[in-house]
Amino acid sequence: METVLINKQKKANQLINILAAVIPITVAVLLGVRQKVDLGNWTTYLPHINGIINSLTAILLIAGLYFIRQKNVSAHRLAMLSAFTLGSVFLITYVLYHLANESTAFGGEGWIRPVYYFLLISHIVLSVLVVWFVLRALYFALSGQHQQHRQVVKWAYPIWLYVSITGVVVYLMIKPYYMH
């Protein structure tokens, strides 16, 4: 019986590691496509929708922390699964936007420019790293491995919250430069 559990754990770890590598690589490749695909004008609204998604994700993450501190496991689970779902939707809409539209350049000048690029670069780097942590946290939670879940969440939660909040801040900073 223990061998079966170890094999399941190994397979889950392999899948998490593969997904944590394949997702950012796939996004990078898709973003690198220079020939844009005509998906329609509706895609120009996706950055605004993504700003809302990141805002809701941050709220859900904070709510999830609140609920678990109140020992309300079912509300915590709902908040965190909702945050994970929104993160998945964000990923799809982000890729769709960039497949159909050129990237928007930041037009700010002076001291705000390095602030924007610091936030953007840290957001991007941590958004790549957080995938592995979030997938592990989700796996441990769903498989009932609560101690391992808590250990991973010590890293996953603050990174994920930072990525969600900086996603909103970066969106608000670049919003004036989007064309319609």
From TrEMBL:
Keywords, comma-separated and alphabetical: Membrane, Transmembrane, Transmembrane helix
Membrane is among the record's keywords: yes
InterPro entries: DUF420 (IPR007352)
Pfam families: DUF420
Organism: Nibrella saemangeumensis
Descriptive protein name: DUF420 domain-containing protein
Transmembrane segments: 12-33, 45-68, 80-100, 115-135, 155-174
